[in-house]
Specification:
This protein is mostly helical and 656 residues long. Helices cover 45% and strands 2% of the residues. The protein has 21 helices and five strands. The protein has a three-stranded mixed sheet with strand order 1-3-2, with no helix packed on it. Strand 4 and strand 5 form a beta hairpin. Helix 16 runs antiparallel to helix 17. The protein is extended, with a radius of gyration of 41 Å. Keywords: Metal-binding, Nucleus. This is Zn(2)-C6 fungal-type domain-containing protein. InterPro entries: XnlR_reg_dom, Zn2-C6_fun-type_DNA-bd_sf, Zn2Cys6_DnaBD.
């Protein structure tokens, strides 16, 4: 049984060894009851009838000690008596070696090694006295504080007398047991170094559902910021007056599980989220739209595009049925809470953006919401939303009329993201381009160029005013770059036949080759390089929207088409672009299955291009018209690019 040996704290009321209290009225003198409280010694025999010795004190009082003068040890001492100074002694155990033999001969004389006399209760009345049987007290159970914590049974904790000090100032127990050489404490005392007798309170273990919730807000929310901010969401959930939040919570857990090693729970959370959305008791409201939109994004990034399109059709129909596209929806269903009203506006516009991106990257749907009339207010800046400082909303007519009204106004990053996806919708509504000089190309290029030219200075890159990544502008820029590739690639002279196997995001579009690069080829290559540069942003790439996967894949198709050409002049630049893209896809593949599929296709195409080029290089006719320097440069370029793929493949294989 372990024993507890605490050291009594020093105080002015009692010394550490049980010496009598000092009266506040007469400093340095003991109370009258302390001198003759007992007439028996420890063994119970009567003591000699002589005056009780005064309390043992140090060799010098405080006044003499401060002046470094010899003190006679009397109370008061002669020096303090002559100088009318208050004489105070402080109890000390330093150098204690037991009572002096002549202590009884001069009871008024205090020696440096003498011990203060004990004037407390008897052994029988004080269980903490030396030699008394320790009292066993059961250790407190953590279950009394937290019923969820179950601890194994423990032995009761024993409390033993305070140990004495040796000359080195270290504890020694009363039974002369040796000190532990590691802890310098008695082996049977419950010192601070002994943890077996003191139950350690562990912090509460978070459940998988809680970790999924936190992962959603850490990794995902900034990319699609329409769900209420975390603090506001938890506050409404705690109030319990908003049952629709339970449906959103089920979808949040599914999205969060994608970023964790959740195992089979991912499928379970997905099934539960879809089930709750289609329960007969589920209200058709804005929270249902939010839950469905989250599930759609997760399914699309997990290579379940067909199921995602089914839910998207339902989500769009429900949104129109409840008038989510109307201005008054936010105020009618916001219950006077500006943050909730802002959440409803963002829900409509994020559904609008996601509908456009799904249509643009997969080229199967036709961006249905682009043709739906809406007058929903525009979202505010992200920091305003997260902190609850919601300004009065602007509207799309304000954005469209700013050039002609002469108003120099900066809109939110979310608004420029909406404007970018609107340009994609306009491009999709243009008639099919038949030849390179078609006027349709000029009109669409004017839309894309005007979007860039009229960006405020603070929105021209992907950083906000605090030099942190602005995810909304990040998406707005890559949407515009993707539109440029989609517009110009079919008219470029980059043969797309070598990369026709890269179709995880969109079906292959045949592009004929040409001898010289035309303007469309330059536009295409420039946009692809800009997308590759976006990979270099100082933020974990998995925190971007999963739609960035297909944009990077689109850029990779351009780079691989260029590499498939016979001769490459800017080999080093091309190698770096390809390296950035395959690195981005490998990172995104840790969360999104679509990125893993795209990575496998890009790698396979690269290997096929490399093998085909090596086969052609064996023939002397292949090098007709090339100088020796050009021939060596081309071979080195091919070897260098292929080595990049192999090194990235090795890194992905060795990753945990």
């Amino acid at each position: 049984m372990e024993t507890f040996s605490p050291e009594a704290p020093h105080s002015s009321a009692a010394s550490t060894n049980g010496s009598p209290a000092v009266s506040s009225d007469s400093p340095g003198t003991a109370t009258s009851s302390s001198s003759n409280a007992f007439s028996a010694t420890i063994d119970g025999r009567p003591s000699q009838q002589h005056p009780a010795p005064p309390p043992s004190v140090p060799a010098a009082c405080l006044a003499c000690r401060g002046k470094h003068l010899k003190c006679d040890g009397n109370t008061p001492c002669s020096r303090c008596t002559s100088s009318a100074t208050e004489c105070i002694y402080v109890a000390s155990r330093r150098g204690y070696k037991g009572p002096r033999r002549n202590a009884a001969q001069n009871p008024n004389k205090r020696h440096a090694s003498s011990s203060p006399p004990y004037s407390g209760p008897t052994v029988e009345s004080c269980p903490m006295m030396l030699g008394h049987t320790p009292v066993s007290i059961p250790a407190p159970s953590l279950s009394a504080f937290n019923p969820a914590i179950v601890l194994p049974e423990q032995s009761p904790v024993s409390y033993a007398p305070t140990p004495a000090l040796n000359h080195a100032g270290l504890y020694r127990n009363s039974f002369a047991s040796p000190l532990d050489p590691n802890t310098m404490a008695p082996p049977n005392t419950m010192a601070l170094t002994t943890s077996s007798a003191i139950p350690h309170v562990q912090p509460p273990v978070t459940t998988l559902a809680e970790r999924c919730f936190d992962a959603f807000y850490h990794y995902f929310h900034a990319a699609h910021p329409f769900v209420l901010p975390k603090e506001y969401f938890l506050r409404l959930l705690k109030e319990g007056n908003t049952p629709g939040l339970n449906v959103v919570m089920a979808a949040i857990r599914y999205i969060g599980s994608l970023f964790l090693d959740a195992g089979p729970a991912k499928a379970t959370y997905l099934e539960e989220a879809i089930r709750q959305c289609y329960l007969p008791t589920t209200t058709k409201d804005g929270f249902l739209i939010q839950a469905l939109l989250l599930i759609i994004i997760g399914l699309d990034g997990s290579c379940q595009q067909e199921k995602a399109r089914e839910l998207l059709a339902d989500c769009e129909r429900f949104a129109i049925e409840i008038d989510l596209n109307k201005r008054q929806f936010a105020s009618l269903h916001g219950h006077g809470n500006p943050v909730v009203e802002e959440s409803w506006r963002r829900t409509w516009w994020d559904l609008f953006v996601c509908d456009g991106m799904i249509a643009g990257v997969h080229r199967i749907t036709n961006f249905l919401l682009f043709d739906i009339q809406n007058d929903v207010g525009l979202p505010c800046e992200e920091q305003q939303y997260l902190t609850g400082r919601i300004p009065p909303p602007a509207y799309m007519e304000d954005f469209d009329d700013q050039l002609f009204s002469g108003e120099d106004r900066e809109f939110s990053s979310f608004t420029y993201r909406i404007a970018a996806i609107r340009n994609l919708g306009r491009m999709m509504r243009m008639p099919q381009i038949m030849y390179p000089g078609d006027d349709t190309i000029s009109r669409i290029e004017a839309l894309l160029t005007n979007w860039r030219l009229h960006l405020p200075e603070s929105k021209r890159d992907d950083l906000n005013k605090n030099c942190k990544l602005d995810e909304m502008m990040f998406q707005a820029h890559f949407i515009t770059h993707a539109c440029t590739i989609m517009l110009h690639q079919p008219l470029s002279q980059l043969d797309s036949s070598p990369v026709q196997a890269v179709n995880s995001c969109a079906p292959h579009r045949p592009v004929p080759s040409g001898d010289n690069f035309n303007a469309h080829t330059r536009h295409t290559i420039t946009a692809a390089c800009e997308i590759s540069k976006m990979v270099t942003q100082a933020v974990p790439i998995i925190q971007h929207t999963h739609f960035f996967t297909c944009v990077v894949t689109l850029s990779s198709i351009v780079h691989l088409s260029k590499w498939a050409l016979y001769f490459i002049e800017d080999e080093e630049d091309l190698r770096q672009q390809i390296r950035l893209n395959i690195g981005a896809l490998s990172k995104l593949s840790k969360v999104w299955k679509a990125a893993n599929t795209a990575w496998g296709q890009v790698k396979g195409v690269a290997q096929e291009i490399y093998r085909e080029k090596k086969a052609h290089q064996i023939s002397p006719a292949f090098w007709v018209g090339f100088t020796q320097e050009q021939m060596i440069s081309s071979i080195q370029a091919d070897e260098g690019i292929m080595s990049e793929f192999n090194s990235m493949l090795t890194q992905v294989t060795q990753a945990p």
